[in-house]
Amino acid sequence: MNLQELTEHTIKISKQAGTFIREQYFLFNEKNVEVKSLNSLVSFVDITAEKMIVEELKTVFSEGKFLTEENTVEQSTLQQTQSDSGWLWIIDPLDGTTNFIHGIPTFAVSIGLMHNGKMKLGVVYEIMRDECFSAYDGSQSQLNGKPICVSERKTLADSLIATGFPYEKFDFVPQYLKTLSHLMQHTRGIRRIGSAAVDLAYTACGRFDGFFEYNLNPWDVAAGAFIVQQAGGTVTDFSNGDNYIFGKEILATNGIINKVMRKAIQL
Q1: Domain spans in the chain, listed from the N-terminal domain onward
Q2: CA–CA distance from 29 to each of 32, 33, 43, 101 (Å)?
Q3: For 37-47, b where at least 16 C-beta lie within 10 A, e where not — what string?
């Protein structure tokens, strides 16, 4: 298995899907939207892009199973996936669907490959900026082919933090608002741009110094989290454990501010 070549193929596939999504962005009619659950939206664009990605990945690497957001391919349940061995593609064909639907040009294709529970490659293609973030096991993360690394900011006061606001399952809102209040007063600012994959990619290249969110799915974070790690950053769950892909909570930082960020989350 040549991971460098497979990553190059994955980049090409993500850009092909991105071209289709970009074309549809300028033609899209909100009447084509379906509601999966509270504030969780899908359109034919998500579904078509996912089918394109899966079919192309099958041609370049036939061994992998698939875990995808839109369930366009037969796959294991999340519980089964966590215990499965072998190769697993984790795919979000359009991370930031709500942005896409509302005409906000921040959304991405996210593709990750896991083997026996360990990430082996990740690609996040931010479509409207034509920025492709990528990494494979043993490599340094890249942006459009050039090496990237996390920031070197040493204090929370100098840091710009990204997050995602809850859009369903609001049990943790009181705790979340405590954390936001603290970060508002002790950081350079907070951003919420509507795509976890992009938030993680921006953390990997030093635009953000940290990112945290709860109630996310594996396809939201798998590729981006790996890219952060390969860029020299730290990724954990809120308890400093490693259950951030399937555990529905993630903290990604430049590593330097990880401890102080974790304290803020646990206030």
Answers
A1: 3-147, 156-265
A2: 6, 8, 10, 8
A3: eeeebbbebbb
Q: Summarize the confidence of residues 230-258 as an average pLDDT.
A: 97
Nearest Cα to Cα of residue 107 among 140, 87, 131: 131
The pTM (predicted TM-score) of the whole model is 0.93
Q: How far apart are the C-alpha atoms of 219 and 189, rounded to whole Å?
A: 27
The correct CATH number of 3-147 out of 3.40.1060.10, 3.90.190.20, 3.30.420.10, 3.30.540.10 is 3.30.540.10
Across the chain, mean pLDDT equals 91
Tokens linked to 110: 């996210």
User: Rounded to the nearest 5°, which phi and psi values hold at 154?
Assistant: -100, -15
CATH number of 156-265: 3.40.190.80
d(CA 85, CA 118): 10
Closest CA to 15 of 70, 56, 73, 71: 56
